[in-house]
Design goal:
Two copies of one chain form a homodimer. Chain A is an alpha+beta fold. In chain A, 41% of the residues lie in helices and 29% in strands.
């Protein structure tokens, strides 16, 4: 094998690893004050199969932030990136996973979805107005 | 040069490019309804020197999301990653850049900072409760 071939191969691996097609998602939901500690604890040590299913479904770089608003209410903001090519199918796999269902049966009652979210939403999807790579 | 040396070099480049040390930041601020269109327009075509200064100051993967709350108020949520090793110094360079100052002189009056933010904040910093790489 020629050296130039190897270098080109390595560059291709580099480019594939660093510049996949990515869709970004930002969303928001309320969270009950009395559930904050439990929510924090669960997310500090998420169940292995929950994280594994998210990765398997092409979710990456997923962060959830918590903040209190001046009126005293608490909100969660999530940001994640999707690197697959069939979001709907991948999200169905997430929703069908028994361990995820169990996770959600814990977290759903902690959350207060925004009343003005779309009909099929739990977390309210937000509009991206700016992005810098 | 041996083939094995070249492969190791390429792998090192790959690892450096993909696994830099990263700090993540999530923050929130209100935005005036009457400024929405102008805010969207400015951020759809940000000034070259503004984006260049952010990159120069080791900010990357920076997104801003907009959403309306059920009470009718609008909020912006930002997510970005910092890859440098002196955040304070890098942010000072951002704040001192004349083009950034001009940008902020446009955007500050569009925004309504949260009353319960910390004293030195404009955007209110949020607490990260979950992250999946």
């Amino acid at each position: 094998m020629k050296i130039s071939t190897i270098i080109i191969f390595c560059l291709m691996v580099l480019m594939t690893g660093c510049s996949q097609h990515v869709q970004r998602f930002g969303s928001v939901i309320g969270v009950r004050e009395e559930a904050l500690q439990k929510y924090r604890e669960m997310h500090a040590e998420p169940w292995t199969q929950v994280n594994a299913q998210l990765k398997e479904s092409n979710i990456r770089n997923y962060s959830i932030y918590l903040t209190q608003f001046p009126d005293g209410d608490y909100y969660l903001f999530s940001y994640f990136e999707y690197t697959g090519d069939d979001f709907k199918a991948d999200m169905k796999k997430v929703a069908d996973n028994p361990r995820i269902k169990e996770w959600w049966s814990n977290t759903d009652p902690m959350q207060i979805p925004l009343a003005n979210r779309k009909q099929d939403e739990w977390w309210k999807n937000m509009e991206e107005v700016y992005h810098l790579d």
